[in-house]
Amino acid sequence: MKVTIEELEAYLFDNYSNGGVDQSLFMKLVEEIGEVAEVLNKKAGRKFSADEDLRIQLGNELADVIHYAVSIAALNGLDMNEFIIEKDKAASVKYNHRTNLEQFVVDKRNRDSNN
User: Fold this and answer.
1) Residue 56: C-alpha distances to residues 39, 62, 95 (Å)
2) How many other CB atoms are there within 10 angstroms of residue 12's CB atom?
3) What pTM did the predictor assign?
4) Which site among 25, 47, 100, 105 is 20 to 30 Å from 114 CA-CA?
5) What are the chain's domains?
6) Residue 15: how many other CB atoms lie within 10 Å
7) In the 3-class helix/strand/coil scheme, how is 55-84 assigned residue by residue?
């Protein structure tokens, strides 16, 4: 099953709108980013790793980062889909990328519909 950014925003708004506080969600976000750093350090051999599945751990920690980041956006009425597209357009120009996210998605959808 695939979930859109809009669906995730609506779900998280529903979960946190009656008591989700930006500051506490931000603190959880920072905590989760630290956990991502810990897994990456283990993957790079800078930190001891017992018999762990670091790929699964990394996926779980990144899911937590996305959860809290999108929760903050949802509580503040931000359309992250719009922000992601516009931010990527600016970055594509700044860093001279061959395409931007919006054009990439349009091209991919056209290719997929032709197959």
Assistant:
1) 10, 10, 32
2) 22
3) 0.89
4) 100
5) 1-78 (1.10.287.1080), 80-115 (no CATH)
6) 13
7) HHHHHHHHHHHHHHHHHHHHHCCCCHHHHH
